[in-house]
Amino acid sequence: MYQTNYDEVYAEIFKIFDRGFAVGTGSNVNTLIRVLADFQLWLDNGFESIHSSWIIDEAVGEQLDEIGDDIHQPRYGTSDETYRFILKTKLLAAHSGGTINDIINIVCNALQIDPKTSGLKVHTDYHWDGTKMVGNPQVVDIDQLPTSLISSHQTLLVLMDRLSSATLNGVEINTVAFMNTMNMNEYVGIGVQSITVENIQVEGGK
Asked: Which domain of life, per UniProt (predicted)?
């Protein structure tokens, strides 16, 4: 099948069920067709994203430029390393559904870190105050993003831009807090660690 257009995927699956079944709009079979079409489209686009990311990792020089042309992302004079980051994050943001998990995956995949062990936190202030739910469930904050993973100022700007463009469905990014850790000398069995936290206000983010 391998279509990336919803109407084409829907039409192909519709043909399979249009053999005596009640497939009209609103029927249970039609609902199933739409679910299968959405799932197939997700699989197709997910495969393209993974495959493209692998190609980007392997590409150099003009090969990267050709990939950039395909997804309409100019190089603007950046190095191969930075351009790879720009291309991969654009693909990741393009496949985002705008959920909190999508935001975590964009950051972790872009920086090649494990979302389960990175310490990265994405949360809202939406909570139960004892009598009612308060806060905004559509506004998120990103905490404990390690500064050691940001290789340059330009990489940081690209990541912030991608996060802003990836927050669909009304989700907004309020703040991004970076954490810088440094191990210090240990004396008499006591370990000392210095932690610096920096907050960046993100404009927009829709």
From this structure: Bacteria
Q: What's the CA gap between 164 and 95, in Å, rounded?
A: 13
Say if pTM beats, i.e. exceeds, 0.85.
no
pLDDT tens track for 60-113: 888 888 888 877 888 888 888 778 777 877 776 666 666 667 767 777 766 666
Residue ranges per structural domain of the chain: 1-58, 60-201
* Of 114, 102, 65, residue with least CA distance to 86: 65
CA dist 123 to 71, 166, 170, Å?
A: 31, 16, 15
Pairing of strands 133-134, 193-201: unpaired
Task: Write out pLDDT tens, residues 24-49.
Answer: 777 877 787 777 777 666 656 554 55
List CB contacts of 197: < 8 A, sequence separation 6 or more.
177, 178, 179, 180
pLDDT digits (tens, 9 = 90+) for 140-156: 777 777 666 666 677 77
Residue type, 27: S
Strand partners, 178: 145, 198
At 23, list the tokens: 């497939």
Residues 6 or more apart whose Cβ sits within 8 Å of residue 204: 164, 172
What lies within 8 Å, CB to CB, of 199 at 6+ separation is 175, 176, 177, 178
Give me the half-sphere count of Cα atoms (radius 13 Å) on the Cβ side of residue 163.
31
